[in-house]
Design brief:
- One of its GO terms (molecular function) is oxidoreductase activity.
- The protein is of the alpha/beta class.
- The protein folds into two domains: about 140 residues, 3-Layer(aba) Sandwich (Rossmann fold); about 170 residues, Dihydrodipicolinate Reductase, domain 2 (2-Layer Sandwich).
- Helices cover about 35% and strands about 30% of the residues.
- It has a nine-stranded mixed sheet with strand order 14-13-12-11-7-10-9-8-15. A six-stranded parallel sheet has the order 3-2-1-4-5-6, sandwiched between helices.
- The model has no long low-confidence stretch (mean pLDDT about 95).
């Protein structure tokens, strides 16, 4: 397969530390250009990551006809604009999560990508790691009985970095946007259904432009199954997932961060005891790039198409409304 030629719009840490190295390690892609609004910043990142071309504007990169796909790690409020502009330039798009600021924006992005005939994917890298197929296999085998509930966490403490884009409300800051989307998307993925309602309580910090620095939520699924979660940017680090059944449970100690080590393994607890399930030591960012690469080359459909990003945003919208209004929100 001829490698997909990627360009990167922005030089955020997630791009430099994780996604670009992942594409470079993938079987299907290569990073040929990076753009920043500051040419020196782009050149510095290009040198650091051995990227051939550095552009001093996003427009220049989109005008490069040799680039087939772009990765967008820009602040959340810029996702819609640059996804649409990339689609209109004929580029396939991998966009950082959350896809946008609300469902209507994601629908506009979906329409633009469909009109242009390009692939769009929201960058939830953890979903491409085979361990989640393995977790679902245990769930569906009946080994832990009927599923009664899921609990997920994703918290970290970065509160002292007051200039961080995560703490700008108009830019889509806040813990629900930044890390709450992970357990929310995981529950939808594992249960293969959409929640019917959301109830969320949050701590909004005046020191951080009024964004939610911690949130705890309940998502209601059918048959009485619930997903509880908490997310935060002013709390000790955790990223866990627990699936509880009538006869046992599954624990994923590092649910969204993959270390490519034994830390990525998960555990199954039943009446027969606790067993460790070993998973392959793989780079989930490379796996994400390969999934897109195969779709772009037409060899297989994308596992999580743009319609999934729309549905995930509907849940996130409800969670934010619930936290702001202090009430239960039904999800239509």
């Amino acid at each position: 397969m001829e490698k997909v030629r990627w360009g990167v719009i922005g030089s955020a840490n997630i791009a430099k530390k994780s996604v670009i190295p992942g594409i470079q390690q993938s079987e299907t892609g290569e990073v040929v250009a990076i753009a920043s609004r500051n040419k020196e910043k782009a050149e510095e990142a290009a040198k650091e990551l051995s990227i051939p071309i550095a552009y001093g504007s996003y427009e220049e990169l989109l005008n490069d006809s040799t680039i087939e796909a772009v990765y967008i790690p820009l602040p959340n409020h810029l996702h819609k604009e640059w996804t649409i502009r990339a689609a209109e330039a004929g580029k396939h798009v991998l966009c950082e999560k959350p896809a946008a600021l609300n469902t209507e924006e994601v629908k506009e992005m979906e329409a633009a990508c469909e009109k242009a005939g390009v692939v769009f994917a929201e960058a939830f890298m953890y979903r491409y790691h085979p361990r989640y197929a393995m977790v679902r296999e245990v769930m569906e085998s009946g080994r832990i009985g009927e599923i009664r509930g899921i609990h997920g966490t994703f918290t970290f403490n970065n509160a002292e970095d007051s200039s961080n884009v995560r703490y700008k409300k108009e830019w889509g800051g806040g813990s629900l946007y930044d890390v709450g989307v992970y357990p929310i998307s995981a529950a939808r993925m594992l249960l293969r259904q959409e929640p019917q309602a959301a109830t969320v309580h949050a701590f909004f910090s005046d020191e951080h432009d009024g964004v939610d620095m911690m949130a705890s939520g309940l998502l209601e699924f059918k048959n009485g199954v619930a997903m509880t979660f908490d997310c935060g940017m002013w709390a000790a680090f955790r990223n866990t997932l627990e699936i509880v059944g009538t006869e046992g449970r599954i624990e994923v100690p590092s649910a969204f961060v993959a270390h490519q080590s034994e830390e990525d393994h998960f555990y199954v607890m039943t009446n027969d005891g606790k067993s460790e399930v070993e998973v392959p030591k793989l780079n989930q960012y490379a796996l994400q790039a390969d999934a897109l690469g195969r779709t772009i080359r037409g060899s297989e459909p994308l596992p999580y198409p743009v319609s999934d990003a729309v549905l995930n945003m509907k849940v996130l919208d409800a969670c934010l409304r619930s936290a702001e209004q202090r009430q239960r929100i039904e999800i239509k």
